[in-house]
Specification:
Blueprint lengths: L7 E11 L2 E7 L13 E4 L2 E7 L4 E6 L1 H6 L10 E6 L18 E11 L2 E7 L13 E4 L2 E4 L2 E3 L2 E6 L1 H6 L10 E6 L1 H10 L14 H6 L6
Antiparallel strand pairs: 1-2, 1-6, 2-5, 3-4, 3-6, 4-5, 7-8, 7-13, 8-12, 9-10, 9-13, 11-12
Length: 220
């Protein structure tokens, strides 16, 4: 688990195809690896990766086909900058929100504008994730815990303060940039819980408008 509070900006040093997937070397910059051991988790742009080698100034990790298919990892190349966070411990401050490191989909930056000393970003999420994104709710963008300022369909707005711009890769975002999105854990579990006994049925893939109407959550 993670908090969505970025600890360092790192970079992709190498990407090596290996048996149908990829092994990646991440240079970790100022991130303290003194307490990291083999098998520990580190979030790279919000993707939970397992350290399999620790050469000193970074770590190697294996990236599965599933991760390549569901994240913006496919756009990475040597030199790409990334947000980094070590897994939280029982004594960590939970400054953001609970983040699993399991990406739900890839979004796109569609607009940005100055807002006093901050920047306003508009992000378009995949349509299937729109139901999990709420006004003033939490969302993780490339591993950064953020508050949703407004929602319009599958698009949502974020206000990024100067400190976050300085400590993450968000200053480099431009329209068209792809980002990893993880919706709030509570929203996903609530959807599953509301299915009740229907969750055990093979066709129970998610909440539908018909299901909500049947159980009184929608009014005609």
């Amino acid at each position: 688990m993670f908090t969505g509070i970025i600890e360092s900006i790192g970079s992709i040093r190498a990407l090596t195809p290996k048996g149908g997937d990829v092994r990646v070397y991440v240079a970790t910059g100022k991130l303290d690896l003194g307490d990291v051991k083999l098998g520990d988790s580190i979030a790279v742009n919000g993707v939970c990766l397992t350290a399999v080698e620790l050469p000193g100034d970074g770590f190697w990790a294996d990236v599965s086909r599933e991760t390549l298919a569901r994240t913006a990892f496919v756009d990475f190349k040597p030199g790409s900058k990334v947000n980094l966070e070590k897994a939280l411990t029982p004594t960590s401050r939970l400054g953001g929100h609970l983040v699993s490191g399991h990406i739900d989909g890839v979004g796109e930056i569609v607009a940005l504008a100055e807002n006093a000393r901050a920047w306003q970003f508009t992000v378009r999420a995949p349509k299937e994730l729109a139901k999990y994104i709420a006004h003033k709710g939490s969302i993780t963008v490339d591993g950064v815990s953020l508050t949703v300022n407004s929602v319009n369909g599958a698009e949502f707005e974020l206000t990024i303060v100067p400190h976050t711009l300085a400590e993450t890769i968000m200053l480099d975002y431009r329209p068209g940039h792809k980002v990893n999105l993880e919706v709030d854990l509570l929203a996903r579990y609530l959807e599953r819980l509301l299915l009740g006994d229907k969750a055990a049925e093979p066709s129970a893939s998610g909440m539908t408008e018909g299901f909500l109407a049947e159980h009184g959550y929608l009014k005609n």
